[in-house]
Amino acid sequence: MSSAPVIVVTGPSGAGKGTLIAELLRRMPELEHAVSATTRERRPGEVDGREYWFFNPEEFERRLQAGDFLEYRVYVSGKRYGTLHSELERIKKAERICVLELETVGAMAVKRCIPGTVTIFISASVAELERRLKKRATETNTEIGERLRLAHEQLEQADEFDHLVVNDDLNRAATELERVVRRELALAARIKP
Ligand code: 5GP
To answer: Distance from the CA of 39 to the center of ligand 1, in angstroms?
Structure first.
């Protein structure tokens, strides 16, 4: 089984984590996204089992009680998001490297649970986050407000993570993210017993 570290990409809503991960996976096919479960509504274009496993609240609760989550969080509008043990196991068994996209508290929880986890914080200015969330137009104004309020708190936590990548320009940020991941994987391979 693979002993490569788990890569956690975190940061506020609208920072472009999803887009950067998609680009990272395109550049490094040995990586695989661990699909989280959520109770939020599916956005146009999202596919069950690709962006998320979309659970209804009862299913999420049942899986939680069954111990199926490594961690979970309630994010905006009371919606739940959680990391499934089964996703991490599936990716490890396939000898691939696991990439998680999590908000900041979940990222820290995974770092505590899985030794060697590498956390990368994706940042952008508040004005940029607001512009992206409004452009995406998939949330109500109340939800956008809630996400921006959370973003202020999350930006203050940026230095608690192993690496910081500022998403000012997608191509530049993707290249920096790739460099960080490659360096961490090389380092982990060297210190492997
Ligand atoms: P969105 O609704 O925009 O897809 O996600 C909201 C936030 O939840 C994002 O910051 C995303 O990274 C985070 N998130 C997605 N899956 C999980 C998860 O399994 N656990 C935690 N803690 N956060 C998650």
So the answer is: 11
Residue 125 and residue 16 in contact, taking contact as beta carbons nearer than 8 Å: no
Show the tokens assigned to 47: 């596919």
Q: Separation of 190 CA from ligand 1 center, angstroms? A: 32
DSSP result, 83-145: EEHHHHHHHHHTT-EEEEEE-HHHHHHHHHHSTT-EEEEEE--HHHHHHHHHHH--S-HHHHH
Q: Distance, CA 68 to ligand 1 centroid (Å)?
A: 17
Residues 178 and 160: their CA atoms lie apart, in Å, by 20
The SS3 of residue 48 is: strand
Which numbered atom of ligand 1 lies nearest the CA of 12? 10
Question: Taking 70 as the threshold, does the pLDDT of residue 192 lie above it?
Answer: no
Residue nearest to atom 1 of ligand 1 (CA): 13
pLDDT digits (tens, 9 = 90+) for 1-13: 557 899 999 999 9
Give, in order, the Cα–Cα distances in Å from 104 to each of 69, 114, 133, 143, 187: 17, 15, 18, 18, 24
Domains of the chain: 7-190 (3.40.50.300)
